[in-house]
Amino acid sequence: MTPQxxxxxxxxxxxxxxxxxxxxxxxxxNNVRDYFAGGKQIGFWxxxxxxxxxxxxxxxxxxxxxxxxxxxxxxxxxxIGEVLGVGAAWLLMSRRFKRxxxxxxxxxxxxxxxxxxxxxxxxxxxxxxxxxxxxxxIYVSAQIDATGKAFESFLAWDxxxxxxxxxxxxxxxxxxxxxxAVVWSDVFQGALxxxxxxxxxxxxxxxxxxxxxxxxxxxxxxxxxxxxSLGEGTEILATLAxxxxxxxxxxxxxxxxxxxxxxxxxxxxxGAAVAIVWTLLAxxxxxxxxxxxxxxxxxxxxxxxxxGSGGExxxxxxxxxxxxxxxxxxxxxxxxxxxxxxxxxxxVVASSAVVRDWFQKVRAPDTPDDALVRHSRIATFALAxxxxxxxxxxxxxxxxxxxxxxxxxxxxxxxxxxxPTVILSLVWSGxxxxxxxxxxxxxxAGVPIFKFLAPALSGxxxxxxxxxxxxxxxxxxxxxxxxxxxxxxxxxxARLEETAQELRDAAR
Length: 508
Hints:
Helices cover about 80% and strands about 0% of the residues. By secondary structure, it is mostly helical. Helix 7 crosses helix 15. It is globular, with a radius of gyration of 22 Å.
């Protein structure tokens, strides 16, 4: 068989497995609890793999490998930040969150927030749902964009054809199988991602002749590739921004819905171990892949642009360079796994915001759970079409876009809106519904402010915000707003006296 045929066979097998998973999972769809939370009967292995596959996306395979190629070992700050974020979410937050969501019988994060703050007017639920629809759509559009780039890089397909193929396959298995299909496919895809990111740098190092030769080659190209620090002054903020990427794991709905679905809190410890080890191996493998790829694919004086925008072509190029033809198709599947495992999870979260948190809880509260599966499938498909339209628009308007920073904007929007509120809701009984509302609105508004407006300020101030990126300041502003407003909201604190005991029970 020719190399092109090997690639097509690998992709066909991968897509076939996903479709089969969708068919099997559709047989377990009895009601909306199954569609959005797997009936709360998912084991720790599946939850851990699903949470990690969902949390990484295309930026890990294409974005982080590209960072390793363009900025060198400084990209390891992202690895440290991710390990810290994943560890904190599992070890410090998940048990309390699981106990409270079981107590409230929550299926979604807005469910939890409404019950935790006794918000009978549904304001928190509606704000949460609207935020999810906006930023999840942006996030999903970034993954759809990455699908087109992946097919374009590996198979030389037309970008738009690649987008269409990936979109159709995801739609078939997620619309039919819901959350169960998402989790089962994430286990399969998470395993592919982990194995691929461990195997590729090992093979690359062997081809290069060992670590010593790679280090010498990188030093000859650019000594700064081996420096951990980004410099002094405002440059340090860029390092801090990479380290703080892990903030997004501390309450994002697409991650925390996995804790809701977990079968028992007794499995949290084992799930944490799996998630942390996976993160350490996969993220480190991505950075090393970028470093090895730069050494093998570029010589001193070669322009970095030869590796594509943001270095995002380094992984496809390295795979073609060091892997036998029959394995190239497998690595195409690895890249697609990173993309599709995030797309499916985000779409389920977004459709839950529309169907569960708006339609069932606000618009038609008497609608039984078992009547909502059809509505959920329609909402999932509709939101995916909106994301597809956005991805196509961005592709036409910004041909030199970077997947990494496109993804980070959507990731930051979700994280800044929800994470500070979730953290405070789990550790502070003084947090009020009004404080939660202001915190979420502040975080939501803070992301575009710190992405577009603050960096445009003159002098060092604007430069500092540009280096820091949008997530850390938006996160801090949301946290501060929630604390201040809650302290001033005496009536709100008085109404929530009973929740203090709930928090104490959850902390035991």
